[in-house]
Write a structure and sequence with these properties.
Number of helices: 11
CATH architecture of the largest domain: 3-Layer(aba) Sandwich
CATH superfamily of the largest domain: Alkaline Phosphatase, subunit A
CATH topology of the largest domain: Alkaline Phosphatase, subunit A
Oligomer: single chain
Number of strands: 15
Distance between the termini: 52 Å
Shape: globular
Largest sheet: 11 strands, mixed
Helix content: 25-40%
Strand content: 15-25%
Radius of gyration: 21 Å
CATH class of the largest domain: Alpha Beta
Number of domains: 2
Structural class: alpha/beta
């Protein structure tokens, strides 16, 4: 699908449904009845979360150099979101948002963690895995965790029955920083050090497939946060040299192979109609890596910035019989929404004793309805750098880059954030500033400088 066709406003999905109202309604009704009759158990979930994947690094989002037939097939038979966001533009904070449904300052994880750090996700937080485990789900985290490497912070202490992967980024093994070789862990034990990264993506896939096969008789949640395409890039001999995009493309095509293996397993086990499969990434491409980094396509900038290239990500959801094939959703959504949405689909609710910033986007996933606009905030550490509301996005600051600017963009007309409209729409600037001010009142205070 050409990239320009994937960026039309949300009316596109309404028109899609209207044009095929009769057939979609019939399929949906039959799907609902079949689901209720043949699948009384709760749905299973597979969430594939890449690392540093750019918005335009897969075929269905515009890549012409990287072949991703299995990811593209998920979109062709499911729904593709054009305006989906990671709630942070770097690793640890983004994963904190995904796991808790809360902006990363609430769980106190505003920056990237390193092996020297003694902090991580605390017992006070409730993860999506804990919510699902209470509902009877078997839960596995397979891949890069990056929410703390000490035992009390590992996935097995935060709702996951099983863990296989590396505890932080694959480049955090620098001798000049006194960092150890990258460890590969099973549950809470190091089983390989340094981790053999050439086969890591394939082994993650094998572990995911094994977990699905072992838990086929009851609902499961497989969280598969891939180590790559974060640098350093590694592939095995069988995937080396396949892509027109060089080593970076080889890595993404290996991930695509893994997606195909997981989907095939679900089909072979007769679980595809019982399983919601999701594909996304933790933040935008690391553009400074040049050939070893990804592409944000039409978006401005990349990883670690508040521009669209840092936050806007591919997001594909596939659930045969429940999601109409070939759907496109242009409503904004984010990885904050994953926790409340999966909780709802599993027959429960997000925690009510704390602020949950995400919302249940089941109507968007199932292409049943649009949802009201709500603000999405772009944060760096404790700073709110920008806000999106509807089609409008306002940038207000970026202290780490020593910028204090007001920039207003119409993202429907100007996805590349090229034309600053702040001078033309002062009332909109004031409205969005007020939203930021109200949001900031809900945030915990930053820690005192040591």
């Amino acid at each position: 699908m050409p990239i320009e066709n994937s960026l039309r406003p949300r009316m596109l999905r309404r028109e899609f449904l209207k044009r095929s109202a009769a057939s979609v309604a019939a399929v949906t009704l039959l799907g609902d009845e079949a689901f209720a009759a043949s699948a009384p158990r709760r749905p299973s979930f597979v969430l594939i979360n890449c690392d540093d994947l750019g918005y335009s690094d897969v075929g269905c989002y515009g890549s012409e150099l990287i072949a991703t037939p299995n990811i593209d097939a998920l979109a062709q038979t499911g729904v593709k979101f054009t305006d989906f966001y990671a709630a942070a533009a770097v690793c640890t904070p983004s994963r904190a948002c995904l796991m808790t449904g809360r902006y990363f300052v609430r769980p106190g994880l505003p920056r990237v963690l390193f092996p020297r750090d003694k902090v991580g996700i605390t017992d006070k937080e409730i993860t999506v895995a804990q919510i699902l485990k209470r509902q009877g789900y078997a839960t596995a985290c397979i891949g890069k965790w990056h929410l703390g490497h000490l035992p009390r912070f590992l996935p097995t202490r935060h709702g996951f029955d099983y863990y296989y992967g590396i505890p932080y980024s694959n480049d955090m093994d620098k001798k000049q920083r006194n960092e150890p070789p990258t460890p590969l862990m099973r549950n809470e034990k190091i089983i390989e050090q340094p981790a053999v990264q050439e086969t890591l993506t394939e082994r993650y896939t094998e572990e995911a497939v094994n977990f699905i096969e072992q838990n086929k008789d009851h609902p499961f949640f497989v969280y598969l946060p891939h180590t790559m395409p974060h640098v350093p890039l590694h592939v095995s001999e069988r995937f080396k040299g396949r892509s027109k995009r060089g080593l970076y493309g080889d890595v993404v095509e290996t991930i695509d192979w893994g997606v195909g293996e997981i989907v095939k397993t679900l089909k072979d086990l007769g679980l595809q109609r019982d399983t919601l499969v999701m594909f996304t990434s933790d933040n935008g491409p690391w553009l400074q890596q040049k050939d070893h980094g990804g592409s944000a396509g039409p978006l401005r900038a990349g990883k670690a910035t508040a521009y669209e290239g840092g936050h806007r990500e591919p997001f594909i959801a596939n659930w045969p019989g429940r999601i109409p094939a070939g759907s496109i959703c242009a409503d904004p959504a984010s990885n904050l929404d994953i926790l409340p949405t999966l909780a709802s689909l599993a027959g429960t609710k997000a925690p009510t004793d704390r602020i949950i910033d995400g919302r249940d986007i089941t109507p968007l996933l199932l292409c049943k309805d649009d949802m009201d606009d709500y603000p999405f905030f772009y944060m760096r550490n404790w700073d709110v750098c920008a806000v999106r509301y509807g089609k409008w996005k306002l940038h207000v600051r970026d202290r780490e880059q020593q910028l204090e600017a007001i920039e207003l963009y119409d993202l429907r007309a100007d996805i590349g954030e090229t034309t600053n409209l702040a001078g033309r729409y002062p009332k909109m600037v004031d409205k969005l500033k007020a939203m930021i001010a109200e949001f900031c009142k809900t945030l915990p205070p930053p820690p005192k400088a040591e």
